[in-house]
Amino acid sequence: MIVLGIETTCDETAAAVVEDGKNILSNVIYSQANFHRQYGGVFPEMASRLHYDTLIPVIDEAIKNANVAINQIDLIAVAHGPGLMGALFMGLNAAKALSLAWDRPFIGVHHVEAHLYASMMEHLDSLPLPALGIVLSGGHTLFLKITDVGKYETIGTTIDDAIGESFDKVAVMLGLPYPGGPAVEELAATGGKAGMYGFKAGQVKDLPFHFSFSGLKTKVLYTVKGVGATQKSQTLIQEEEKKNIAASFQDAVFADVIKKANKACLAFGLQSIFFGGGVVNNQHLRELFSKSCSLPLFWPTAGLSLDNGAMIAGLGYQKYLQLGASSLDLEAKARMSFSSGKL
């Protein structure tokens, strides 16, 4: 089965063609990062407009690169949430229109679940389950128990800022460009000493696998600009000191994730860890996990960490086999939760 996948949940316009849920024939991504950098973050209205301008050319390129004809496409898959509503409308309505024009079924999939599926695609015949699923991105910090593709139980999540959002905000404090994650990682790698500052992530009472990064973010702000400061306050530290703050913040966040991941694996008898989301592209995180965890670790391959159409097409294939096609009444959803059992 050949599936066209469409992804427009935030600021990447992406389309891909995937065969049988795992063989990637093409994967085209147009990033809006350079445009949004001038605003220090995603400008939702402009994200929608850029999707409008680029989506059809991206889909055309994905089909061309896959070397398939339109009549060979069996299914259209699209992320219908969670994400920015305007951006979601672009992809969802395009998928519905193509479904009608080409007389092909379409299916909506959960964007965050697709991030996890990205690290499973190459291992579907031998998934070591049950497993811990970790999604770290601009909008999500999520621990899940995976019992099968499409079967999850939530273990922990953030009660305030997502991990990627925290990186973006700390980047602004340090005068770094958007997106903040790669910028903080790059600065920390220039000789930053993680032990220079005693940053620690917050703990959530009676919820040992939940996350809280707002207090840590505020501690970084006060370190950079002084106690009681705001984002607009004057920076008090020397330029050279920024790399130590970046390294200390990064290690504090990742230490919290790794500690809770190891505890979750022991508590729930998990056999492996699957990762998804843009933050897991951080090479320092991967090195720390490799040193601190003895379980098999499965990372998304190159091109599948950030938002992409291949993960949507791959998961769409699995969901179609399980559930059949979606109705044209399917709606975009800015928020979608994981619940026990199938989504």
How does this model look, in words?
The chain is an alpha/beta fold and 343 residues long. It folds into 2 domains: 2-116 and 304-342, ATPase, nucleotide binding domain (Nucleotidyltransferase, domain 5, 2-Layer Sandwich), CATH 3.30.420.40; 129-295, Nucleotidyltransferase, domain 5 (2-Layer Sandwich). It contains 10 helices and 11 strands. The strands form 2 sheets. It has a 6-stranded mixed beta sheet with strand order 10-9-6-7-8-11, sandwiched between helices. A 5-stranded mixed beta sheet has the order 3-2-1-4-5, sandwiched between helices. Strand 6 and strand 7 form a beta hairpin. Helix 5 (163-173) runs parallel beside helix 7, helix 7 runs antiparallel to helix 8 (242-268) and helix 8 crosses helix 9. The radius of gyration is 20 Å and the shape is globular.
Question: What secondary-structure arrangement, pairings included, does this model have?
Answer:
Layout lengths: L1 E6 L4 E8 L3 E9 L1 H4 L7 H23 L8 E7 L3 H18 L3 E5 H10 L10 E6 L4 E8 L2 E7 L5 H11 L6 H9 L25 H12 L16 H27 L4 E4 L6 H10 L4 E2 L10 H15 L17 E2 L1
Parallel strand pairs: 1-4, 4-5, 6-9, 9-10
Antiparallel strand pairs: 1-2, 2-3, 6-7, 7-8, 8-11
Helix pairs in contact: 2-3, 4-10, 5-6, 5-7, 5-8, 6-8, 7-8, 8-9
H/E element sequence: EEEHHEHEHEEEHHHHEHEHE
The number of strands is 11
CA-CA gap between termini: 22 Å
Supply the number of structural domains: 2
Oligomerization category of the chains in this entry: single chain
Q: So what's the CATH class of the largest domain?
A: Alpha Beta
Helix/strand-derived category reads alpha/beta
**Second CATH tier, the architecture of the largest domain:** 2-Layer Sandwich
